[in-house]
Structure formats: structure tokens, C-alpha cells
Amino acid sequence: MSEKIIKSADRVKIAGEVFTPKKTVDFMLDQPEIKEKVNSLTTTFLEPSAGEGAFLVEILKRKLEYAKTQSKTNKEMQKNFLLALSTLYGIELMEDNVEMLVINMVNTFRDVYFNTFSHEEQNHKVLKSANVIISANMAQGDTLTRKTATGEPIVFSEWTPVGKTKVQRTEYTFDSIVEDGGPLGSVQNQYEQLDLFASDETEDEDSNVRHYLPVKWEDVYKQLVE
Ligand SMILES: C[S@@+](CC[C@H](N)C(=O)[O-])C[C@H]1O[C@@H](n2cnc3c(N)ncnc32)[C@H](O)[C@@H]1O
């Protein structure tokens, strides 16, 4: 079956929307310097014009395969699946593309999950947490203005492992990541926390940024805030 890489001539004109064929994605991800980064549980990727996820979906598949090789037990593998997933970020302008992006990431994670773990090993909390991570990491918005369609700042979550089983979720505006951090491609460890975070007295009620409690990876779906 041939791949559809263009939806309409208008969309190509308005948003430069031409999707990358799988063969090209594979070729690019097979380059040794990229391969090395994909074969890591913690290296982050940000796709600033994510489309329907041609690159992010393939990177997710490859990272999950890598996670299998790095896990001694089924439980550890499930945690490593979520860790690998949490390193993938996307921004996409067009709402229908973001919808497909989220669906494609959710389906990819679920397919690999169901093919890896037996019925007895499966834990629905892991899938629910995967959905929360995907929703948080795939943003609808304009990478250039760093805002969503409604003019709000794009907000991303950093997922920092705490000990062997837990994670600390911290939100940052994309603006603060770009201004205070390094290159777009490396989100983690490259930026400062917003001033807003630093103060526990004068929190802005209008802020888009929430404070989360450290939880087990499988409990991310509970979205427990302070
Ligand atoms: C050339 S396509 C590539 C899509 C995807 N990366 C792929 O390889 O299949 C560019 C994508 O960027 C999106 N886009 C265009 N301008 C954007 C902007 N300012 N911010 C975020 N996304 C944008 C388009 O809607 C389109 O889906």
C-alpha cells in the first residue's frame, strides 16, 4: 500500500505539510549518531513539527525494543517502557495532526505492550500512565511563537527518575526551555525552573504550571499535585 504523504495542496502551502515516508525515517534513524541516541532510555527527542508522528512513532518503537534489552524483570521492563516514552516530545500546529499524533503514539505503545507482556503480567495502570505521558508530551501549538491555538504558552513536563521506581514530574513553559536552555533537541537538564516554581508563597493562580508529587511510574496517571 502506498503511503499518503500529502493531505492537500492547500495544507502544503499553509503549513509545509508533507509527511516523511517510512523508508526515509528508517534511513535517518539508522545513521550511527542518531542510532546511538535512540539506544538510550533517557536521551530526549523533541520534534518541533511532529505531523502525525512519522519520526516519534518509530523512535518510540526502537526505544521500547532497547528497553527490553535493559530490563531484568517484567516489572522493571514496564517501568523502563514508561521512562523511554517520557523522553519523547512533539509540537504540531494542526489540530487534526495532533489528534493523529496522540492516537499513533498511544497505539504504538499499546501494541508493543500487549505483544511483550502476558495477560497475567499486564497492568492497566501502566497503560493509563502512558496515555497521560503522551498527552503531556505531545503539544498542539506553534513552535515559532511557543503558544497554543488559544494563545496560552506551550507547557512541557520533565519526567525525572527518583530512585529505582519513582518519577518526579515538573512542568516548564516551552518558552523558558528555549530561553534558558540549550538546543531544541535536548529538553532535559538544559534549563532552569521557572521563578514561579521557586516561590512557594506567591504562586500565580493563573499559572499553567502545576506541582506534582513524586509517584511510582505506574501511578503517573493519578496526576497527584501538591
Ligand atoms: C513537513 S511536515 C513534517 C511532519 C512530520 N515531521 C513528518 O516527518 O512526517 C511539517 C509539519 O509541521 C507542521 N507545522 C508547520 N508549521 C508549524 C509551526 N510553526 N509549529 C508547529 N508545527 C508546524 C505542519 O502542520 C506539518 O505537520
Q: Characterize the overall form.
A: globular
Oligomerization category of the chains in this entry: single chain
Counting helices, strands and paired strands, the structural category is alpha/beta
Helix share bin: 40-55%
> Helical segment tally?
9
Are there runs of 5+ residues with pLDDT below 50, and where? Answer: 182-206
What separation lies between the terminal Cα atoms? 50 Å
Number of strands: 6
Bound molecules: S-adenosylmethionine
Query: Which value, in Å, is the CA radius of gyration?
Result: 18 Å
Number of domains: 1
Major sheet strand order = 1-2-3
Mean pLDDT: 88
What is the N-to-C succession of helices and strands?
Answer: HHHEHHEHHEEEHHE
Strand content: 5-15%
> What kind of sheet is the major sheet?
3 strands, parallel
